[in-house]
Amino acid sequence: MEVEKLYEMLKKAQEAKGYFFNKDKERVFELLQALILNKERYGYMACPCRLAAGDRKHDKDIICPCIYRIPDVEEFGSCYCNLYVSKEWNAAKIPHQYIPERRPLEKTAF
């Protein structure tokens, strides 16, 4: 799947849910390209900012959009990768701060 096509598909689906792509389109396209690569590699779009095990069941929490996106955007205005953000984050109405990793350590040690 090409990046532009994935961008348009996800933009439409996620904006309807209140999640917006980072206004830095270059960053967004890099992340989407990494999602496409992970889809080819693992068969699913694992978060490009985390190390996937290559086991769908183990990695289900980090299949994009990951389960951590909701609390990250609610608390910080952005997900861990800065792919999905709030309107306020894009408009710089809230500080752009470091998003701490929510994934449990035992999920990363495989």
UniProtKB/TrEMBL annotation:
Native species: Candidatus Desulfatibia vada
Catalytic activity entry: [thioredoxin]-disulfide + 2 reduced [2Fe-2S]-[ferredoxin] + 2 H(+) = [thioredoxin]-dithiol + 2 oxidized [2Fe-2S]-[ferredoxin]
GO molecular function, one term: metal ion binding
Top enzyme category: oxidoreductase
Stored SUPFAM superfamilies: Ferredoxin thioredoxin reductase (FTR), catalytic beta chain
Protein origin, superkingdom: Bacteria
Its job: Catalytic subunit of the ferredoxin-thioredoxin reductase (FTR), which catalyzes the two-electron reduction of thioredoxins by the electrons provided by reduced ferredoxin.
Cofactor names: [4Fe-4S] cluster
Gene3D superfamilies: Ferredoxin thioredoxin reductase catalytic beta subunit (3.90.460.10)
Keywords: 4Fe-4S, Disulfide bond, Iron, Iron-sulfur, Metal-binding, Oxidoreductase
Enzyme Commission number(s): 1.8.7.2
Family from the record: Belongs to the ferredoxin thioredoxin reductase beta subunit family.
InterPro entries: FTR_bsu, FTR_bsu_sf
Protein name as catalogued: ferredoxin:thioredoxin reductase
